[in-house]
Write a sequence for this structure.
């Protein structure tokens, strides 16, 4: 593999010195870019784009051609794992992802098999190895998965949900069934992420998009417990260096201390968390990633630059901060505003890394 030219992102995650704060954006390879829309049209639909390793590589690299980002993230979807379990994933216009065969009974859960990442998910591994080769050491490649709880919400509900009624009913009325599902998902995700590392991913991120929907105690029982299981089973060293792991629970500001105890290297913060407070609470243990509100990119550029300055000042001096949005970039953002955001992070952060 080519030697890494810019390892600022990996160093910050491990709280090692950097010259400036690294920055990347969740969903940076996505619908806000006209070149992405053109490639997706060429693929035909979203899952066809995910399953074509050459086109998945192309859209992963597109934002790096525009911007001085400090990391690339694999272009894929969190629902690849349940899809590989045979649930029949499809996308309904205006409705988001749906499953033909929801996993809403204990019998359905018992029948689920753990997918082989090199077989049923081989297209993801092919994308990882292709992207890593094409990056040629420019920046590190992030691999990722959804958390077991987040994947289970889609599998039990049959798709997206605002109330999570079916899965919460299972959690409280049939907890043994849900634990069986979460256990299978934790095993599947561990294999999936380790295969991404074996194929070239240099850092890993677990997206717990819906952990914030749980009560204080239910979060630990149904979400954090299974992310802990994954972390305990991950490959943490490859290509002669550490493979940092970032946990991100949207709406998880209540649980930062508990998340930091899992042995992860970094925590993602959404925009509801004050980064100065987060650093006081857990910054001695883990790096922090975040956390500008993605909607701030709709603001005039001087206002974006001001917000960047406030977040950098909130984190303060020293390493251990990866700048990001508090969730994925919105599809209607002007690409020039994203570019101004990235430049502002690099320009304004140098003063904190003397």
């Amino acid at each position: 593999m080519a030697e890494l030219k810019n390892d600022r992102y990996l160093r910050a995650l491990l709280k090692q010195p950097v010259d400036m704060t690294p920055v990347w954006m969740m969903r940076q390879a996505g619908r806000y870019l006209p070149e992405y829309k053109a490639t997706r049209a060429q693929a035909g639909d979203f899952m066809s784009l995910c399953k074509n390793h050459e086109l998945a590589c192309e859209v992963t690299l597109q934002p790096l051609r525009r911007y001085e980002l400090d990391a690339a993230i694999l272009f894929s979807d969190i629902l690849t794992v349940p899809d590989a379990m045979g649930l029949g994933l499809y996308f309904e216009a205006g409705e988001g992802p749906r499953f033909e065969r929801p996993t809403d009974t204990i019998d359905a859960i018992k029948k689920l098999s753990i997918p082989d990442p090199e077989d049923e998910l081989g297209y993801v591994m092919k994308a990882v190895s292709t992207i890593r080769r094409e990056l040629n050491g420019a920046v590190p490649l992030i691999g990722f998965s959804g958390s077991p709880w987040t994947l289970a919400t889609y599998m039990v509900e049959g798709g997206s949900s605002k109330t999570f009624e079916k899965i919460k009913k299972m959690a409280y009325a049939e907890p043994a069934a849900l634990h069986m599902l979460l256990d299978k998902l934790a095993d599947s995700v561990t294999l999936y992420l380790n295969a991404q590392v074996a194929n070239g991913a240099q850092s890993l991120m677990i997206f717990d998009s819906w952990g914030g929907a749980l009560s204080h105690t239910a979060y630990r029982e149904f979400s954090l417990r299974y992310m802990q299981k994954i972390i305990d089973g991950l490959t943490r060293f490859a290509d002669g260096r550490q493979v940092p792991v970032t946990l991100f629970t949207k709406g998880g500001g209540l649980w930062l201390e508990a998340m930091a105890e899992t042995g992860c290297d970094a925590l993602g913060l959404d925009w509801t968390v004050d980064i100065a407070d987060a650093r006081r609470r857990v910054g001695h243990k883990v790096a922090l990633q975040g956390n500008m509100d993605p909607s701030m990119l709709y603001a005039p550029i001087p206002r974006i630059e001001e917000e960047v300055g406030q977040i950098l000042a909130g984190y303060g001096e020293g390493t251990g901060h990866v700048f990001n949005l508090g969730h994925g970039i919105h599809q209607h953002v002007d690409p020039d505003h994203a570019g101004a955001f990235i430049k502002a992070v690099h320009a304004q952060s140098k003063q904190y890394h003397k």
Remarks:
- The radius of gyration is 19 Å.
- The longest strand covers residues 141-146.
- The chain has a mean pLDDT of 97.
- Residues 12 and 291 are 15 Å apart (CA to CA).
